[in-house]
Amino acid sequence: MRKASKTFLITSVIIMTLSGIGLYFYLKQLLQNEIEEELFSNKDRVEHLLEQNPNLLGVPPIMMAEKTEKPHKNILVDTLIYDPLQDEIELFRQLSGTKNINGQEYKVTVRSMVIESEDILSTIVFMFLMVIFLAFIFLFYLNKSRNKKLWKPFFSNLERLKKFSLKADSPLTFEDSEILEFYELNKEIKILTSKIQTDYRNLKQFTEDVSHEMQTPLAIMQAKIDTVINDAEINEVQFHQFSSLQSDISRLKQLNKKLILLAKIENDQFTANETISINNIVEETIENFKELTSIDIQLKEQNTINIIMDPSLATVLCNNLLSNAVRHNLNNDRILITIYDTKLQVINSGNETLDRPDQVFERFYKESRRKDSTGLGLSIVKKICDYYGFLPSYRFRASTELQEGQGKHIFQIDFNLKM
Amino acid sequence: MKYLIAEDEKDLQISIAKYLSSDANICETASDYLEASEKLELYEYDLVILDINLVTGSGLVLLKKLKKQHKKCGVIIISANSSLDNKLEGLDLGADDYITKPFHLAELNSRIKAVLRRGQFGGNDTITFKEIRLDTLARSAYVNDKPITLTRKEYDLLLFFIINQGRVLSKAIIAEHLWGDDSDLLDNFDFIYVHINNLRKKLTKEGAKYIQTAYGSGYKFIAD
Questions:
Q1: Structural domain boundaries of chain B?
Q2: How close does chain B come to A222, measured CA to CA in Å?
Q3: What span, in angstroms and rounded, lies between the C-alpha atoms of A313 and A265?
Q4: Chain A contact for B151, CB < 8 A?
Q5: Which of A347, A344, A345, A325 lies closest to A278 in space, CA to CA?
Q6: Cα(B142)–Cα(B202) distance, rounded to whole angstroms?
Q7: CA of B43 to nearest chain A CA: how many angstroms apart?
C-alpha cells in the first residue's frame, strides 16, 4: 500500500511538472502573439495619425515616428531601453517599419514592455501549480484514508496469519471483507490452513499410534526370544543370533521411546516447570556416564545457570548432548564440558567437520553409519531448545598446531537468559 | 506363589506364564477383561500381571475394582504406553509397579519378586540360594553367614542372578536391568563383563561358584 502511494506521488509530480512547463510555454507564446498583434495595430494607428498630422512625433519611447530616406520592411526585435521615469533599463519588444505617407517615407517604431507580461505569465503558472498542488494533497489524503479502510481487513487477517500456529487447536478465522478478491483469498487460505492443520494432526497422531502399537509386537518378540534361549537346546551361533535380535528389538524400543518423547514435547505435555540448576543436572549426568564409559569427562563450571524448565526434559537434554559426545568421540579422548555465562558447551574430538553441519539437529540425520545410533538424540535436543527458546549450535574447530591430531566438535546450548 | 496373567496377546501371555512357572509358581491366564474380572472375583492370587489395554475393557478399571475389594494381591501393570501420566495413574490406583512393553521376562520376574518381597504379600526380606543369603532391606550379602563386600552394581547383579536362577541371561538383558535406558550408550558390554567378573571373583573366594558362562556370551546362575 505504501508502494502504491509512492507511485501515485511520483506520477503526480511528473504530470504536474510536465503540465506546468507546457502551460508556461503555451501562455508565453499566447502573450507574445498578443503583444505583437498589439504592436502591429499600434503601428497602424500611428501611421493613420501620421496621415492627418505629418509632424507627429509620437509618445517616446512607446510610439515614435520620424522621417527617413531608406524604406525597409517591418522588423520585430527585443531591445533594452533606459526608462527615465522608472530609472531603470527595461526590456521592450520593438516593431519598426517604414511607410510612405503622402510621398514622404516615415519610420514608425512602436514598443511594448515585456516585463509586465512575464509577470502575468509567472502568476498564472504559480496559480495553476497551487491549484494542482492543493488538489493533489487533498486527493492523496483522501486516497490514503480510503485505502486504509479498504485494506483494513486484509491487514488484520495478515496479522492473524502471522500468528497462526500449526499446533494450535483452533482453526484460523478471518475478518470478513466486502471486497471480492479479499473474500476469495480468505476462503482459499482458510481451506489451505485447515487442510494443513488436519494433516499435521494426523501425522502426529500417526507417529504416536505407530510407536505405541509397535510396543506390543515387540514385547511378544522379546518374550519369545527369552523363552527360546531358556527352553530349547541351541548352539552358540544361534545364541549369538538371538542376542543380536534382542539388541535390534531394544533399538526399536529406544527409537519408539524417542519418537514418543518428541511427540509429547510437540503436544505440550511437559508442564512441570520449576527452577532447576543446570550445573546439578550436568553433574548428575556425568556421574551416570562414568559407570558406563571409560572416557574421561571433565566439567568446568565458571558460574551457575538456574533456569525454569521441566526437570525430566533438562535431564534428557544433558543426557542426549553427552551421549552424542561419548558416541562420536575419537580414541577415548577427554570430553570437555564447560558452563559459562548462559551457555553449556560440550566438546568431543573428531577428525573432520560434518558434511552437512546445518543438518546436525535434524531428525534421522546420521553422519556416521553407526548401528546403535537412532539419529534422534540431537533432534530431541533441538526440540527441547525450541520449546524453551534456547539456542543450540554446532561448530567444528580444526586441529591446531598446538593440539596435533584431532579437531573438536563443539556443541553449545545458549540458555538465552538475560543476565 | 499364584499369579494371574491378564494379557490379551496370547503369545505374550504364554511366554510369561512359561517363564514364571519354571520357579514352581502357579500361573493362570486371562485373555480379556471379563475373564480377568471373573477370575479375580473367584480366586485369590498373590500377584496379578495386568495389561492396561485389554480388548474388552481397561485394566485400570479392573485395578480399581480389585482395590475396592481389599484383596491382598500385588499388581504389576504392563502397558504399551510409556507416558508418565499413564504410569502415575496406575500407581495412584494402587498398582505396585509398572513396566513398559517391550520388556525382558527376566526383568519382569525381578520386578515381581521385588513386589512380593515388600512384605505384605507373604514374602520376606531375605533371599537365600544355597549358602548365599541376601538381606534386601540392608542390601547386604552373606556367604555362609559371612558378610561379603559388594558394590551397588554387584549387589544388584547378584540379586538379579538369584531371582532368575537357572535361566540364560544375555549381556543385553543384564545391561538393561542395571542401567535401564542408558544401557544403549554402552558401546560394548565390557563394563558388564568387569562387574560380573568382580562379582564372580568375590563369590568364588568364598567357595560359591554359581555364575556360569552360557553359549560363550551369556550367563547362567545355577547350582551344579
A1: 2-117, 126-221
A2: 6
A3: 9
A4: no
A5: A344
A6: 11
A7: 27
Of A342, A353, A356, nearest to A392 by C-alpha is A342
Q: B139 in contact with A at a CB cutoff of 8 Å?
A: no
- Please say whether the dihedral angle defined by the alpha carbons of residues A65, A69, A71 and A74, taken in this order, is positive or negative: negative
Tell me if chain B has a CB within 8 Å of the CB of A331: no
User: Under CATH, what is the fold of the domain B126-221?
Assistant: Arc Repressor Mutant, subunit A (1.10.10)
Domains of chain A: 2-134 (no CATH), 180-266 (1.10.287), 274-414 (3.30.565.10)
Q: From A46, A179, A115, B149, select the one nearest A55 (Cα to Cα).
A: A46
Is B186 in CB contact (< 8 Å) with chain A?
yes
d(CA A167, CA B169): 45
ipTM over 0.95: no
**Phi-psi bin for A303: left (phi > 0), alpha (psi -120 to 50), beta?**
beta
DSSP code of residue A402: S
Residues A323/B185, Cβ–Cβ less than 8 Å: yes
**Chain B: nearest CA to A234, how far in angstroms?**
8
Q: What is the pLDDT of residues A41-54, one digit of tens each?
A: 888 888 888 788 77
Nearest CA-CA partner of A376 in A284, A270, A257: A257
Contacts with A257 from chain B: Cβ below 8 Å: 82, 181
Q: Is the pTM of this model over 0.80?
A: no
Is 3.40.50.2300 the CATH classification of the domain at B2-117? Answer: yes
- The residues pairing with B132 across neighbouring beta strands, listed in sequence order, are B129, B143
Contact B104, B160 (CB under 8 A): no
CA distance readout (Å), A72 to A35, A66, A68, A107, A416:
22, 14, 10, 9, 98
Amino acid code (one letter) for A27? L
B52 in Cβ contact with B100 (< 8 Å): no
List the single residue in B22, B170, B183 with the smallest CB-CB distance to A243: B170
Q: What is the pLDDT along chain A (419 residues), one digit of tens a residue?
A: 566 667 877 887 788 778 877 877 887 788 888 888 888 888 888 888 878 877 777 777 777 777 777 777 888 888 887 777 777 777 788 888 887 777 778 888 888 877 666 676 777 778 877 887 888 789 888 988 888 888 888 888 888 888 887 777 777 777 777 788 888 888 888 888 888 888 888 888 888 788 888 888 999 998 999 888 888 788 888 888 888 888 888 888 888 888 888 888 887 777 778 899 999 999 998 988 887 777 888 999 999 999 989 888 898 899 889 888 888 888 888 899 999 888 999 998 887 777 778 888 888 877 665 656 777 888 899 999 988 889 999 988 877 655 556 788 889 999 877 65
Q: Which residues contact B32 (CB under 8 A, 6 or more apart)?
A: B8, B54, B55, B56, B57
* Distance from the A306 Cα atom to the nearest Cα atom in chain B, whole angstroms: 25
What is the distance in angstroms between the CA of the first residue and the CA of the last residue of chain A?
41
Q: What is the dihedral of CA B127, B132, B137, B140, to 10 degrees?
A: -170
What phi and psi values does residue A418 have, to the nearest 5 degrees? -90, 115
Q: What is the pLDDT of residues B49-102, one digit of tens each?
A: 999 888 888 888 888 888 888 777 889 999 887 666 677 787 888 889 999 888
Nearest CA in chain A to B175: A292
Distances (CA, A) of A33 to A28, A36, A114, A263, A368: 9, 5, 12, 89, 93
A311 vs A332: CA distance, rounded Å: 30
Cα(B50)–Cα(B77) distance, integer angstroms: 5
